[in-house]
Every structure is written in structure tokens, then in C-alpha cells.
Amino acid sequence: YDQLSKYLMKIHQLDDEMLYSEDKQAIIDEQQQEAKEFLHFFKIDQSEFQNYYSQMIDKSQHCIQDLFNLGNKEKYKNGYKKSNHQMLAQINLIFHEQALILSQIERFAEENISAQQNLINQYNQSSANIERIQNLQLIDFSQFQLWEKLYQAYSFFFNVPLSNATRILSIKSGKDTVSNNISQTYFLGVYVCLAIYFFIAYLDIAIFWPQEHISTYTLNKSQIEVIRINFIISLSIILIGINQYIFEKSRINYIFILDLPPTKITAGSKTTLKYGVLHLIISCLCNIFAIASISEFEERGQLSIPLGEILYTVSLTLPASIWLSVPLIIMALYNMIGLFRILKGKSQIARYFMIQFYHCLCPWAQDVTFSMYYIADVITSYELTISDFALDTSEQLCPDYIIAILQMIPSLVRIIQQYKKYKKAGHFYPYGLNGLKYVVALPSKVKNISQVHSNHPLYYVLCSVKVIESLFKIYWEIIEDWGLLTGGQGCQIFRNQRNRWTNILIRRTTMLNPVFLIFAIFQNVVLRFAWALPVFFESYFKNDQYVMLLSFVEIYRRYVWTMIRIDNSQATNCEQYFQQISKDQTDNYGISVVNESHV
């Protein structure tokens, strides 16, 4: 499906180019060649998939017929049906499995019929392609008949009206889009609204009430650091969920690219967003309780939120430090449950993250994969969180030079990873040059050590090094990581083929909007220099709220980077695949393909 959508996007690009090109025949020839090559892929892939789904239809037909016959037997309508609850649950599970299979077949048939019809209408009306679309229509008709029979079988077996059976199986299979829309509306209307409300309430109580002399309170340094850590965790989970949502809607195969365990990734973006928003609600509520428990109000016990007096009474039951620790305790319990599930062999996704974390801590111990340096890159944006965690766990006793060393660890991990890639590949560009990017980042980590900060000449020299680091990273992220503008290593084969560029960008077929890419370039340049604000406005950044805002900005910038990085990696994977099979090699399905000139 991804190859198909990229192909159609390419054809539309060529249509747009024809409006401004003087050599229209060359573009027409390229369109025909693109269509010819893709139809070759499409024909072979469709044959494989049609055989697979035809077999699924046959198996479902036999299974549904058995369920239908079972529902008609009188003994299952009477006492035996009511007494054998275990068997009833097993058969109910079989019904739901069949509904999922039919839903998958239905999506396959509908998408491929539409795509095949488009190709036939515009480029190739051969009898073979017409026969192929007829086979797809036959699969679609067969699954429609099986749906009707499955509804009837469920109705007979569980003795429920046919309309109820239709609704239950449609919801379980994801076929019921109305129920899905209700679920999404419920999420937006309840979880998101509560999160926004409590976050605004926290800002009101924490920032504006002291300014308006409604209340006064004092948080110690450890408590402020815990608040920052809680909000960073919430923001990170929400941004991961947003990334997943964009990947799913844009058909970017992030599960394959990051080598995630696909059999266990069933929740996707919705559950991730729900967990993130729920953690934000808990964090805001606990922060409100903590501040209320140590505040002195002009009118004692008044919180300007619903049930304010009751909540204020609840806040006095525990010390502020305990309230602030509740979100961290919940996260720790969640991770302990994940570890227990790993030991029981039940949680592949928890095991995946544990292994990736181990690989990041021991980069010298194994070959470097994309997921390893992708995660290590993300961790480089959590310098302030590393500092907060070190100070909080050491009760503010951790020396500042130790904190500087801890903040260097993510960059050192990336240096080791790039060195291993350089040793294996044997050429300095891009791996050695990428490693230098992290070497340049090391000196700036020491600029916040008190002795360095008080030595103004040395401090400003390190700030100058930070400027060089920022410029280097801006270049590398836009050109190399994202494959934009001059294109970098990944876009070498397109450098002299301007007809393949997306607008003014050298860009492989992207699943993201080019306008978004241009916006990302602009914001990345601006946000990369956000670190300079405390240098020029030091008095403002003595306020911890501004420091927290600065850390939010860096986390947000990093997760925008991840979106385009994954998209670019998908394009790279596709090109490597096409380059491999274009040399008359054969993949696991026996597909042998055409020359390399049009890849």
C-alpha cells in the first residue's frame, strides 16, 4: 500500500510538471515507464495477495458455516448453552476473530479495487488487468456474503436480534466507524478537556495567584525539579502518541523502521495519547494538591476550581513532597509491572524498550541499528531532565561537574555508535562526520559549572562553541537526517534529477506535506538557538517556570525532528530495496525486476 501511494503521488507530480515543462513528451514517456514498471510489481504482488486472501475466504467460509450449524442445534439453545460458560466464551472469541478476518479482507479488497481501477483507466486497459479487478470484486462480494452469514450465526447462537449481532461484531472488528467516532469524541471531550482544565488551573494557582496576592507559597529546589520531571514525562508520552497518530494517518511504517514487535503493537496512538493525557491530569492534580498544602491563602481553604474546599481538605492529608511524588510512583509501578510481564514472557513491547535501553548504555557491545541511534538521538534532548533527576535523587548533593559528565553520556553514546559505523563502513562520510557533531557538543556541557560560569571569558568561549555546535546540527538535521535542500548522503541519486524534487526541496517521495517540511526547517533553526535566551536574559531565567518552558521547547523540537527522520528513513529503505532488486536479484517472494535507470 505504501508503494502504491508513493507511485500515485509520483504520477500526480509529473502531471503538475507537465503544466510548466517545455518538453512534455519526455514527461509523458516517464509517466508511461513509471506505470509500466509499477504494474509489473503490482501484478506479481496482487497474485500473491489474491491467493492469500482467497485462502482466507475459504477458511472463513468453512468456519462460519460450522458456527451457523452450531447455532441451529436445539441443545445449544437450551440448558447446555447456559451451563457451559467456558465453551460459550471460546465460541464468542471465535466469532470475534472471524469478524476481524472479514474486516481485513474487506479493507484489502476496497483499497485495491480503487487503486487498480485508477491504473486501468489512466494507463493500461489490458484484459489481464481487467481480469485482476474482477477477481478482486469476487473477493469483495464473497466477504460481503460471509458478513451476512456471520451476523445470522451470532444471532442464532446467542439468541439476540440480528441488529444487535450486527452492531456487536461491527464494533469488535473496527467496522463500525460510528462507534469509533464516538470513542474519539469521548476521548477529546473527556480526557483532553480535563487535562487542559487542570493544566490551566495549575498555572493559575502556581503562577498568577502569588502575583495577585491571593496566596503565597515556597517550593524548594527538589520539589521544583520533580514538577519538571512529571511534566516532561507527560509531554513526552503525548508527543509520542501524536507522532504515532501522524505515522498511522500518513502510512509511515514506523513499526518496521524501529523494529518494534508488530504482534504486540495493537493499541497504537490512541492508547499512547490516552496514557499521556491521563498522566498529565494526575500530574496537574498532584501539583495543585502540593501547592495548596503549603500555601497561605487570604481566604483559607478556597480553591477556584469545582469542589475547591473538598480538594483543599484532601491536599492537607499528605505533605507536598508526597503529592509531587505520586506521578513518579505510578510510573515506577507501571515499569515494575512491565518488568514482571517480561519475566513471564508476556510483554514484548516492554522487553523491546528494556533491550533498547541496555543497548544505549552499552553501545560498544553490539552492532548499531537504526532504532538504537534513533533512541540515543532523542535522549540527547533530555539534558535538563538528567540534571533534575541527578540532583533530586542525591538530595541536591550531586556536584555540578558530575552533572556535566552525566549530560555528556548521550553524546558519548552517539560518538561510540558512529565510530562503530565508521569502522564497519570504512569511509568518513557520513559516519565520521556525524560523530564529530557530537564531539563538538561535549565542551558546551561544562559551561554551567559554577567555576566556569563565573569565569566570563571562558564562559563566552564555550557559548561560541555552542553556536558552532548549533549550526553544525542545523545543517546535519535538515540536510542529512531529513534529506532536504541539497539532499545529503541519502539523496545522491536524485541530486541531478530536478524532476524528482518536491517543490524547491530535494526530497524522495514523502508522506508528509511539503509545507510542513518548510515550516519544520524554519522552526528548527529558531528553536536550535533557544539555549541562547538564558545567556542574554539571565535575570528572567532565574525563574524556574521559564527554565521548564525552555525544556518543553527542546522536547517539542526533538519530536518534530523524529517525524521527518522516520519519514526520510522509510524513503531510504524503499530506495535500498529497489536498488537491490533492480540488479536482477530476487527477494523472498521471487520478484525479479527491471533496469536501474528509472528507479
UniProtKB/TrEMBL annotation:
Q: What is its main location?
A: membrane
User: Which BP terms does GO give this entry?
Assistant: cellular response to phosphate starvation; phosphate ion transport
Transmembrane portions of the chain: 185-209, 229-247, 275-294, 322-343, 515-537
Q: Which UniProt keywords apply?
A: Membrane, Transmembrane, Transmembrane helix
Q: Where is the EXS domain?
A: 394-597
Membrane topology category: Multi-pass membrane protein
A single Gene Ontology MF term assigned here is: inositol hexakisphosphate binding
Q: Which InterPro entries match?
A: EXS_C
Q: Which GO terms describe its cellular component?
A: Golgi apparatus; plasma membrane
Protein's cellular compartments: Membrane
Domain of life, source organism: Eukaryota
PANTHER family listed in its UniProt record = SOLUTE CARRIER FAMILY 53 MEMBER 1, XENOTROPIC AND POLYTROPIC RETROVIRUS RECEPTOR 1-RELATED
Stated name of the protein: EXS family protein
Q: Which organism is it from?
A: Trepomonas sp. PC1
